[in-house]
Design a protein that fits this description.
Blueprint (H helix, E strand, L loop, with lengths): L7 E3 L3 H22 L1 H11 L3 H26 L3 H28 L4 H8 L2 H13 L5 H18 L8 H21 L8 H21 L11 E4 L2 E4 H35 L2 H14 L5 H29 L2 E3 L4
């Protein structure tokens, strides 16, 4: 008897589309959370807190809040740390401690706008990295989106009249690389490596590293009792750092590590550029730093770039859905 020919069916995973939408929402929420840290930390530093103290409290409290996820993962699988310890350490030293320390090191040698611009070249670096790794040139939409997003970013950070410093540029580029590692490592999170366990472990490693730098005197430690002004209201400094640790850092990493596996490193990194726009908004509301009109224009251009990159990802997803898949023979 002749073998039956199985019909071709088209796979249309609605769940995958829902996952990407959820990932976009989580990515924006992560950027919003991270963006609030600067306007809360800046008054603390101006009031006498040292950078090392602020980073240690921020990262350490966030690690404690997310630690149950790591404990649960270890209890479920005794070999968890042996299997995933290296990637957690890499995440902690780069995406947590390295990114922040290198960025602030750049700030000591160059204007904030320039350091921010260089650090947020991370999405473009990821496009180049993917090109070199896969040997497949990015699509026209991705190239166009990258150029448009960077043009918008230049306007948002307003680098007019800024000067460049070689060592500061190196620090800022290193911070951009660390940010890129954040997206690459976070994409590997899933059932085998729970996202919150990755975030908790990375934050714990980052806090330990910053603590060591404080102990040996590389970073100064100053944590005076201060009052800061936020939105025209006097706020105890302890409340400001609690917001940074419990909201900006904890939710920022928690949402971020859940978003990246759903939408991929490329889209997640460009969505992360919205952090700059949110930071401008928080600085406006809390510190009275009114953005210039050109920064609003830059924000709109930046969002167009993000949309172009997202359109490329959407087109790829549609093509994947339309790929005929052979149904199992009866």
């Amino acid at each position: 008897m002749a073998a039956s020919t199985a019909p071709l069916t088209v796979v249309a995973p609605a769940r995958a589309h829902s996952g990407r939408t959820t990932g976009l929402v989580l990515g924006v929420a992560s950027a919003l959370a991270f963006a609030s840290s600067g306007p809360f930390v800046k008054p603390l530093l101006e009031a006498g807190w040292s950078l090392g103290a602020a980073l240690f409290v921020r990262i350490g409290l966030a690690a404690l809040l997310l630690s149950p996820a790591l404990v649960l993962a270890v209890r479920r699988e005794r070999s968890f740390l042996r299997r995933h310890g290296l990637i957690i350490v890499v995440f902690g030293l780069t995406a947590v401690a390295g990114c922040q320390l290198l960025y602030f090191a750049a700030l000591q040698r160059m204007p904030v706008a320039v350091a921010l611009l260089i650090q947020y070249l991370a999405p473009v670096l990821l496009v180049v990295y993917t090109w070199l790794r896969t040997r497949r040139a990015p699509s026209r939409l991705v190239v166009a989106g990258s150029l448009v997003a960077i043009a918008g970013l230049v306007l948002v950070v307003d680098i007019s009249g800024a000067t460049f410093d070689l060592l500061g540029t190196v620090f800022a580029l290193a911070a951009a690389v660390c940010m890129g590692v954040y997206f690459i490592v976070a994409e590997r999170a899933g059932d085998d490596l729970p996202p919150l366990a990755l975030a908790a472990g990375g934050l714990a490693v980052g806090a330990l590293f910053v603590g060591i730098l404080l102990l040996v005197g590389v970073l100064p430690f100053a944590l005076p009792s201060v009052t800061v002004v936020l939105g025209g209201v006097d706020v105890p400094g302890i409340l400001a750092i609690l917001w940074v640790a419990c909201v900006a850092t904890t939710l920022g990493y928690a949402f971020g590590v859940h978003a990246v596996p759903r939408i991929g490193t490329r889209v997640a990194s460009f969505v992360g550029l919205s952090e700059v726009l949110f930071a401008l908004g928080f600085a406006w509301l809390l510190l009275g730093e009114t953005p210039a009109p050109v920064q609003f224009v830059g924000g709109a251009i930046l969002l167009v770039g993000v949309v172009l990159v997202r359109m490329d990802a959407g087109a790829a997803a549609v093509a994947e859905k339309a790929t005929p898949t052979a149904a199992p023979a009866p």
